């Protein structure tokens, strides 16, 4: 597959040898919102190593939130009554990670 004349590489979740406890998203549903925390142990949020974005897939579609160095490794999403399917997190050093709901 190409985009803008460049060959694209498929991102495969969890395919990099890195600590799972700091990269796999943890999904918590509270009422009509989903809180996605990155890692069972906090992921670093340093300029040189951080979670760039979090994507929440629900039965109604998806939402993405961008994170910044120095912030919390967490994102909150409004569900609007939809059921959560999965959450993805992208680490600038260790790639894409996924957790199924």
TrEMBL record:
One of its GO terms (molecular function) is superoxide reductase activity. Keywords: Electron transport, Iron, Metal-binding, Oxidoreductase, Transport. Belongs to the desulfoferrodoxin family. Residues 16-99 form the Desulfoferrodoxin ferrous iron-binding domain. The keyword Iron applies. The keyword Transport applies. This is Desulfoferrodoxin. It is an enzyme of class 1 (oxidoreductase). Its EC number is 1.15.1.2.
């Amino acid at each position: 597959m190409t985009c803008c004349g460049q060959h694209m590489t498929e991102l495969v979740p969890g395919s990099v040898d890195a600590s799972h406890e700091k990269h796999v998203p943890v999904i918590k549903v509270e009422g009509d919102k989903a809180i996605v925390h990155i890692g069972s142990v906090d992921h670093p949020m340093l300029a040189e190593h951080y979670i760039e974005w979090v994507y929440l897939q629900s039965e109604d579609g998806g939402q993405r939130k961008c994170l910044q160095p120095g912030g919390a490794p967490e994102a909150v999403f409004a569900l609007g009554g939809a059921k959560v399917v999965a959450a993805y997190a992208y680490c600038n050093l260790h790639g894409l990670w996924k957790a199924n709901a």
